[in-house]
Amino acid sequence: MKIAAVGDLLLSGSLEEGRDSDSVFASLRNVFSTCDLVIGNLECTLDGGGEMISTEPRVIASPGLMQVVARGGFDALSLANNHMFDCLESGFLQVKRTLRQYGIAGFGAGENLAEAAAPAIVVRKGMHIALLAAADESSGAAVWAGENSPGINPFNIDRMEDQVRRIRAHVDHVIVCLHWGRERMTIPSPMQVQQGRLLAEAGATMVIGHHPHVIAGAEMHAGAAIAYSLGNFVACDVPYVCGDELCWNRRERTGCLLLADLNADSLACIKQVATFDPGLAVRPDNSGFGRRCIERANKALQKGISLGRYRRSYFWINTVIPTFGHLRPSRLGSLRPRHVRNALLHALESARAQ
């Protein structure tokens, strides 16, 4: 059985008038058509009637963009991320209805914790695959599922390990999707490495990470594939109320398409394919840039991730680089108080990052 897994689908706004919805994933249609299961992380919500969280950015897609996803060939989508409830419960329920309408399995969020934590079970070629999803508290999600309240499934390694073991006894494969890690980090933290390996040892066939918006490394452990971050698959710019936009750079528009061949009881092989989205036109990245991102991330992981190395990398990526970027003469005019605030917060976070 062949599986295709991608990272964040950051869908914001709407498709340009007159543009064919099939064009967004047209360059990957031949790849997806050969796969039995295509999964990703739906990092957006739908307008639920005007209700929304107070903080920005808010990633809100139009119904037309959801149709793009359906026509793109996706079979299952993780909903466990920090933007699924940007329009609160009403937006989430609209997403839930829309996915049901298109026959796409959604997992990792629900109207209560039991639903959010429940696996989506899909059957392909006689094999039963359980899909689980959760988000780490560091992702900044606004709404967490409770016993009697809606939200996303909070990640707890002990609970997830136990769940993987229990479910694995009744299915052929378990795939875990985790929204974790720090944004723009090209290496996982030592804690993530430990957690990913524990889930592999518990019986997960694949552990698929997202949230950093860039590619991090992938490795094999205990017969399982662990991809710490697949980066952005779709990268729409996200507007702020003030008129600014959250725009993605070249690295953040580069993703990793993870292809896996599964046997009845094992993972046969995996392949990492670089993708690029210049703006709702995802295609294989043939420039060489994406391949280099993947190779560097894998090499960094193979060297081992110490806590000191991780903290230095965090400080450099989230404090030094953005600070010098905003101090360039061409960008001084766009400097906002939130940029200074974020730089100071990231500097403090780097000292205690795990």
Report on this model:
With 354 residues, this protein is an alpha/beta fold. It folds into 2 domains: 2-305, Purple Acid Phosphatase, chain A, domain 2 (4-Layer Sandwich); 306-354. Helix content is 31%, strand content 26%. The protein has helices spanning 29-33, 63-71, 88-102, 113-117, 157-168, 190-202, 289-303, 307-326, 337-352, and strands spanning 2-10, 37-42, 45-46, 60-61, 76-78, 105-107, 109-110, 120-124, 127-135, 151-152, 173-179, 206-210, 218-221, 224-227, 232-235, 238-239, 245-246, 254-262, 267-276, 283-284. The strands form 5 sheets. Strands 1, 2, 5, 6, 15, 18, 19 and 20 form an 8-stranded mixed beta sheet that branches. Strand 5 (76-78), helix 3 (88-102) and strand 6 form a beta-alpha-beta unit. Helix 5 packs parallel to helix 6 and helix 8 runs antiparallel to helix 9. It is globular. 46% of the residues are buried.
What would the keywords be for this entry?
354 residues, 6-stranded mixed sheet, 2 domains, Purple Acid Phosphatase, chain A, domain 2, alpha/beta, 26% strand, single chain, 8-stranded mixed sheet, 20 strands
Task: Please describe the topology of this protein.
Blueprint: E1 2-10, H1 29-33, E2 37-42, E3 45-46, E4 60-61, H2 63-71, E5 76-78, H3 88-102, E6 105-107, E7 109-110, H4 113-117, E8 120-124, E9 127-135, E10 151-152, H5 157-168, E11 173-179, H6 190-202, E12 206-210, E13 218-221, E14 224-227, E15 232-235, E16 238-239, E17 245-246, E18 254-262, E19 267-276, E20 283-284, H7 289-303, H8 307-326, H9 337-352
Parallel strand pairs: 1-2, 1-15, 2-5, 3-4, 5-6, 9-11, 11-12, 12-14
Antiparallel strand pairs: 1-18, 7-10, 8-9, 13-14, 16-17, 18-19, 19-20
Helix pairs in contact: 5-6, 8-9
